[in-house]
Amino acid sequence: AQTVTQSQPEMSVQEAETVTLSCTYDTSESNYYLFWYKQPPSRQMILVIRQEAYKQQNATENRFSVNFQKAAKSFSLKISDSQLGDTAMYFCAFGGSQGNLIFGKGTKLSVKP
Amino acid sequence: DTGVSQNPRHKITKRGQNVTFRCDPISEHNRLYWYRQTLGQGPEFLTYFQNEAQLEKSRLLSDRFSAERPKGSFSTLEIQRTEQGDSAMYLCASGLTTGGSPKNIQYFGAGTRLSVL
Q: Which of A76, A100, B12, B116 is surrounded by the most beta carbons within 10 Å?
């Protein structure tokens, strides 16, 4: 069975600084995708970034980038130039052959002015 | 594209009552997923549909839970004889998939928060 582990329950960062959120996963599948979702307080979950397991190049989306280490089964999210609007719960998720997503427990990120 | 819509946003009920939630996915999305999220946890998968067919059910989906997607568009999730442990946020997501590829992005609704007293 696949598992996703986020070891940082809470993190904080100063506005304009850089922060990295950690995620590890376990799977025996070879074809899968990894996702980071953001859930602002009392708002719906939105996709931040997606990584295809067969691609060695790390995905980037503006200020968001990942460090994907397939052998280590590690998938961290780096947020550069943090903004107040980045304050949210961040969930790492695994998408495999079954179609549904498996989520970690989340990291609560607070961006301080 | 109006996004995934869930109704109601909040539901308070007494233990033992039945409740039903509705999810309207993004039009033309053929997959629809239900997840449950309790406080301090990530969403947990319950079930999903491809068109009108229910393809997968989690063991979390006890026999008190039933989900339907009768015409391959909106879906309903019913909980019978609610228990206090059913209190949670119920999230719906939709996506467009071809061939069962895992790459497809799931778009989430705002959820229905259920409180069982």
A: A100
